Amino acid sequence: MVAAKESTGRPPKEKRDWCKLWGGIRKNWLLYLFLLPMAVYLIIFNYAPLYGIQIAFRDFRGALGIWDSPWVGVKHFETFFNSYQFKDLLYNTLSLSAYQLVATIPMPVILALLLNYTTVPWLKKLTQSSTFAPHLISVVVMCGMLNTFSSSTGLFNILLKQLGMEPISFLGIPSLYQTMYVMSGVWQRTGYNAVIYIAALSSVSEDLHEAAIVDGASKLKRVWYIDIPSILPTMVILIIMAVGNLMSIGFEKSLLLQNDLNLARSEIISTYVYKVGIQGAQYSLSTAVSLFNNIINFILLIGVNKASRALSGSSLW
Amino acid sequence: MENVKKLGKRKLGLAQSRGDRAFDIIVNCLVVLAAIITLYPLYYVVLSSISSPNAIITGKSLLVPVDVSFASYRYVFADSRIWRGYGNTIIYTFFQTIFGTAVTVCAGYALSRKDLVGRNAIMKLVVFTMYFQGGLVPTYLVVKNLGLTDTRYVMIIMGMFSVFNLIVARTFFMSKIPDDLWEAAQLDGCGNGRFFISVVLPLSKEIVAVILLYIAVGSWNSFFNALIYLSNQKLYPLQLILREVLLAGQTIQSDVDAADIAEMQRLAATIKYAVMVISTLPIMALYPFVQKYFVKGVMMGSIKG
Question: Which residue of B32, B287, B299 is in closest CB contact with A133?
């Protein structure tokens, strides 16, 4: 029996698997070629920089290169934690993110529900198109608009004057800064973010609604008991993703809206990283700060993902 | 069929309670309000770019333009920086879109194939980059060491690939190109290359358009890479010029004589509005097209949740 098996001359199982694997790779060699440009891009611009993170623990000097710069341990982290800006930066970043999260999660849902229940078809189309439009405006133009509108002779103050109120320097008051930031974001992104909910709502089964109508449920009740539960999983995923990006909140917009008057509120970790690193050429300190930021972000993402899997069963992975 | 529908509607109409009617009215009002809130600022920008500065300041031109004049546009177009920025942006956008789309679509297709050995591992390595990055300075050092700072290449390469676009493309291929199709083609002796070109691509016009527009709009509007990697003003894309004009308080530098300078100062605000209009025009000109495919892209990406 044993001899017969051996005489078939088949290689052992392990080797056979390798052959199969190699065969699979060879058969689809073209697909690997398809992956090559992406792989090169990611290796150069995403994986190679990971190697450079170590300069957060070194005193980086360009002439010495990354590996030969002296190791200093957590010196730069200490410098950052002990700096007078640390508390403000952390507070500004977290509060701005939290504010944005709270304001931007419900708005697209509300818009999608409104559009779903409009009784005038052309109005639905018009509003969907118009709320989507600001999404295509560049961040520079968006901030330019905010800046011009906020000036003493800008749109906001003209409207205030028409209402008989005193002009306000909207971008010059630190306590107003975050509201300006978040509300302009709501204006710009709600239409785009609503698209996914509109799609989710349109796939809610008609039968459910019909049954509810037969049972005499009001529209408000149908929203609450049929529509909201059916878009909840989508919401959960989007919330997880938003929390996962909590610390990477808009560098560009913050930098563009900053001025000397609102700096106390508008300086966040990412703009600080830019100023210290690129403008100030303190490479190691800047890297330490962004690593700190990145780690908090990562912990938040994992935490939220775990929490949501435990609570609602939906998660990113 | 029509009758049945009408009947259904009437029936529903009869069944409507007063609460539901109030609900309808409130909903419709809020929808109108949403349209006004989003459209008015855009309309105001266009309006103000052609109104007289005095009318703008006194609030006389809130609904219709007053003393229409295109002088502001004349000054903007006389600024060579705007033209150069426009030219640069067109070059960067064009090449980034072409290369980026090719890379994304090819990789997305390869990763959609279930018979690709190592597919899941590769996908994990790709998605990892979305959640953990080297950060600003380490990335900057890599780009600098490659000698890419202050070149046009950096503006074309950086940002041409994004994991988000890849996932959208991959999801599309996984749901629209069934495995059977590849198996059948194989039986007919068709290889990967021919299959991709004569079967996959013709079925994938939609996803190509989506990725194309995603990258094009992103590239047109992008400002971060130029800010970090460019210091030579001649290479500046439009968005960086815009920043100088709109936010850094620089004025338009037209080649005009002294008499015009006073006029330009008078028009300063309208010039800013004109700059905003000019820079956004190409995207808004394609708006219906862009909106259609952006929406499609969101749907494609969301299929898998």
Answer: B287
Is residue A42 in some structural domain? no
Q: Is B261 on the interface with A (CB under 8 A)?
A: no
pLDDT at B303 over 80: no
> Within 13 Å of residue A97, how many CA atoms lie on the same side as its CB?
25
Q: Helix or strand or coil: residue A163?
A: coil
Q: Looking at the domain assignment, is residue A281 inside a domain?
A: yes
How many structural domains comprise chain A? 1
- H/E/C letters for each residue in A264-296? HHHCCHHHHHHHHHHHCCCHHHHHHHHHHHHHH
Nearest CA in chain A to B224: A252
Share of chain B above pLDDT 90, in %: 55
A-chain CB neighbours of B45 within 8 Å are: 145
Q: What domain range includes position A124?
A: 85-136+175-312
Domains and CATH numbers, chain B: 2-69 (no CATH), 74-302 (1.10.3720.10)
* Averaged pLDDT score across all residues of chain B: 87
**Chain A neighbours among B 128-157 (CB < 8 Å)?**
129, 131-143, 146, 157
Does some domain include residue A293?
yes
Radius of gyration of chain A (CA): 27
Count, residues in chain A: 317
Provide the whole-model pTM.
0.88
ipTM for this prediction: 0.88
Mutate to test the interface with B, among A35, A128, A159, A308 (most CBs of B within 10 A): A35
For the residues B8-24, what does the mean pLDDT come to? 67
Q: Is A143 on the interface with B (CB under 8 A)?
A: yes
DSSP 8-state symbol, B223:
-
- Say which CATH number the domain at A192 has: 1.10.3720.10
- The residue among B213 and B9 whose pLDDT is bigger is B213
Window A:47-86, CB contacts with B under 8 Å: 47-53, 55, 66
Q: Is residue A16 part of a domain?
A: no
Low-confidence ranges of chain A (pLDDT < 50): 1-8
What residue has token string 């960086």? B240
Q: Is the Cβ pair A144, B290 closer than 8 Å?
A: no
Provide the token pair at B164: 């988000």
Task: Give the pLDDT confidence of B159-187 residue by residue, as tens digits.
Answer: 999 998 999 999 999 988 988 899 899 89
